[in-house]
Prior knowledge:
The complex is a heterodimer.
Chain A: E1 5-10, E2 15-18, H1 23-26, E3 32-33, E4 38-40, H2 42-50, E5 54-58, E6 61-62, H3 66-72, H4 81-93, E7 97-102, E8 105-109, E9 115-122, E10 127-128, H5 129-141, E11 145-151, E12 157-165
Parallel strand pairs in A: 1-5, 9-11
Antiparallel strand pairs in A: 1-2, 2-4, 3-4, 5-6, 7-8, 8-9, 11-12
Chain B: E1 6-8, H1 11-20, E2 26-27, E3 42-44, H2 46-54, E4 61-62, E5 65-66, H3 69-79, H4 83-95, E6 99-102, E7 110-113, E8 124-130, E9 134-135, H5 137-149, E10 153-159, E11 164-171
Parallel strand pairs in B: 8-10
Antiparallel strand pairs in B: 1-3, 2-3, 4-5, 6-7, 7-8, 10-11
Helix pairs in contact in B: 2-3
Amino acid sequence: MPKIHRIMFDTDTCKGLIKDNYYDLSNKWFGRETKEGLELSIIETAYLLISERAKIVICDEEISGLEEFMEKAYNCLQEFFWPSLLVYKDLRDRGRRTRVIQDGEFVIKDKHGALRMIKVLEEGHRITLEEIVSSIEKAVDNALSLVIAVVSLQGDITYYEVGRVDPKK
Amino acid sequence: MLYNRVIVPDYECANILYWELGYYGTFLGVAKPKDKCIRSPLELSMLEALYLAENGVLEIYSGARKLGIEEIKDFSIKAIPRFHKLYAVYKDLRRRGFIVRRGLKFGCDYLVYRFGPGIDHAPYGAHVYDSRESIDPIEIVRMGRLLHSVRKKLILAVTGEENIRYLLFTWWKP
C-alpha cells in the first residue's frame, strides 16, 4: 500500500505543501524542497490526489476528492491546467520522473535515462513558429532536447521530438 | 507560359529537364515516369520554372514573346499567395542538392528526396511557414501522422528576414 500524504493547499498561492515524511516523493522528483517542507505545484497536487497518494487540506478542512478540489481551488485552475495534467499523468503513469518547471513545461528522465524538456501545446491554442524556435533554443541552452506534447480537444496526446537541423544531402 | 504554369511541349527538352537536370515537372498523364523517352509534354509549376529560368536553363515565352526573369517573378507573386516563402525554401533546398517535388498528396508543401522519385523514397515532407506566423499545434499532428504512416519525417521550414531555419519533428514515445 503506498503511503498517503497530507497536502496543505493554499488557494492564494496555488501551491501545496507537505510538511514532513515526503522523501519518497522528493526522491521521485515531486515538488521543491523548502524550509517549510515539500512545495508542490497544482499539477503535482492534483496528480497525487487522483492517484490516491494524498489527501488535500484547504483551510484546515480535508476535501473529499477531485470534484471538491476543483471547486475550492477554481481560481488556481488556469486555462492550461487540464492539458498539463493530462501530459503529466501520462508521463508519471509510464514511470517517468517528471519535474514541473512551470505551467505546461516539464523536465523528464526518459526510459533511456536522457533528460528532455516537455512543452505542452493544446489544439486550438495557436503558437508562432518563433515561439517553437525559442523553446528549442531554451532546451538546447539547458543541454536538453525538446519534446512537444500536443493535446487534442478529445484528450489524445501526441509527442514529437523537435530539433533544428541543417539539411545536407 | 500558360496562365499560371509553364508547359514544355518539346518531348526531348521535357525528358532532359526531368531525367537529367533533377526531376523537374510532371509529364502530362504519366503518374510514375519510368521510360526515359517519354512522349508527353511536361508541366512545370511557376516555382520550378522560375528556378530554372534564374539558373539559365529555361527560356519562358508567352505566345511568341520571351519573358524576362522579373516579369516571371512579378507574375508568380500575383499568382501564388505564399510565393516569397515557398520560393525561398524551394531554392534553398535545391541549392543544397535535394530533389524537391510537390507534397500535396502527403499534406505538406514539398517532398524532399536525396536522389529522386523512383530511386529513393522521399525521407522528408516539408511545410513552409514564416517565423511570425502562428500555427494550431494540431496541424503538426495531422501532417506528422500522415507522413509517419508513409515513413517520412516532417520538417517545418521557417523563413525569416535573414535565413531559413529547418525544424525536424520526429514522433516520440515516452
